[in-house]
Amino acid sequence: MTPDDELLASLRENAGPRSTGTGAPTPRACRPPASEEAVVRAEEELGFRLDSLLRRVYREAFDGGFGPGYGSLPLTGRESLVSTHGSFRSGSWPEKLLPVWDWGGAVWSCVDPEGRIITHDDVGGRTLTCFKTRTWLRAWVDDVDLWKEIYEDRDSTIVNPFTRQPVATKVRGTAKGWPSPV
After folding, report:
1. Would 177 be classed as within a structural domain?
2. Which candidate in 27, 101, 119, 141 could, as Cys together with 175 as Cys, close a disulfide (CB 3.0–4.6 Å)?
3. Which domain holds residue 93?
4. Residue 167: strand pairing partners
5. Is residue 180 part of a domain?
6. What tens digit of pLDDT does each residue of 62-119 get?
7. How many structural domains comprise the chain?
8. Looking at the domain assignment, is residue 46 inside a domain?
């Protein structure tokens, strides 16, 4: 059994809903694996092949719903990899950067053609993380709080609009990593 085979088995065993660490609603439900035809059709619509491990996950484990945040997008449909990538491409989005995991609040974890995980948000843009698809999914299976791995939360004080009293809180800081190469 290869390390990828072991990871796929772990994904199938541990794919139930779990806390995202961000207070987000319950993630998407995992869907049955996609057919080979569905994967090929999605790749044709995207105009490029999926990262090899991501392709195997969609084909052999689940067609969406796995992973952090709200769970991965399914391959096709109204809110899918294909449709989301298409809507992002209407701007200056890189051709082969695939938004896979939606964290809410305009934060995405994306996969580039080399399998690198890139954080994208509305403030900092794209940031290369220390993860690749394999290490990202392994960390998720192992219950690592990936939000804390990709963001530096910072303390902040806000004023409660009802009581007018200061309230200490944490807010999303900057994404951890390096400028994205894509």
Report:
1. no
2. 119
3. 3-150
4. 158
5. no
6. 999 999 999 999 999 889 999 999 999 988 899 999 999 999 989 999 999 899 999 9
7. 1
8. yes
